[in-house]
């Protein structure tokens, strides 16, 4: 079984400050990890993914994420947040051994960036 | 390339009725997955189709079914609608099934059951 936890329902940050959205996962094997963002009345947009190799993954819109196997975490980060980053962020996992494209999502974290 | 399209975008149905939702994947993508998004349960996987075959199925009752056509377009059907079926239904496509490939999501169909 695979699962994802996003411990914070909401993160508030001032514009220009660093942004971190936390994610921990559980899989029986090795994980593929993903971050998606959802704007109001929109579907999910892919931000970045971890496959293997370098633990720091860079993605779209200046976002990056750090994979930590010992802590089973995959936190999303942005050095300087923008008001336009305000949205709902989802972490997702797929076990490398699993067949198919099923993603298991965390509950989501709402990010509010204040001017 | 055009993105994933879903029709209709909004739908209002009455309990007991049935509904069919449609998804057109990105050109060249052969895998289509469906997810249900609700405030209480979050994002839950319904099923995946790849080359017209169901590849995976989530933990939903048999009232939820789907199919995929030879052009990769997919439909999802919900029969005997219940109030709890009110949700945003998201379709996602990808080039192939499995592995590290990411999925691309459509805007969703907002279903309201009254």
What does this structure look like?
The complex is a heterodimer of chains A (115) and B (114). Chain A has 115 residues and is mainly beta. Chain A has strands spanning 3-5, 10-14, 19-21, 24-26, 31-38, 44-50, 56-58, 64-68, 73-78, 87-95, 104-105, 109-114. Chain A is built from no helices and 12 strands. In chain A, strands 2, 5, 6, 10, 11 and 12 form a 6-stranded mixed sheet that branches. Chain A is globular and about 45 Å long. With 114 residues, chain B is an all-beta fold. In chain B, a hairpin with a 2-residue loop joins strand 5 (42-50) and strand 6 (53-57). The mean pLDDT of chain B is 95. The A-B interface holds A 32, 34, 36, 41-46, 49, 51, 90, 98-108 and B 4, 31, 33, 35, 42-45, 48, 50, 55-56, 58, 90, 92, 94, 97-108.
Overall SS class of chain B: mainly beta
C-alpha Rg of chain B (nearest Å): 13 Å
Task: Count every helix of chain A, treating DSSP H or I runs of 4 or more residues as helices.
Answer: 0
**β-strand amount of chain B:** over 45%
* Largest sheet features of chain B: 7 strands, mixed
Helicity range of the residues of chain A? under 10%
**Overall pLDDT metric of chain B:** 95
If helices are DSSP runs of H or I spanning 4 or more residues, what is the number of helices of chain B?
0
Query: Which runs of chain B of at least 5 residues are low in confidence (pLDDT < 50)?
Result: none
Distance between the termini of chain A: 41 Å
Q: Please state the oligomeric state of the protein chains shown.
A: heterodimer
Shape of chain B: globular
Question: Order of SSEs of chain B, N→C?
Answer: EEEEEEEEEEE
**Separation of the first and last Cα atoms of chain B:** 37 Å
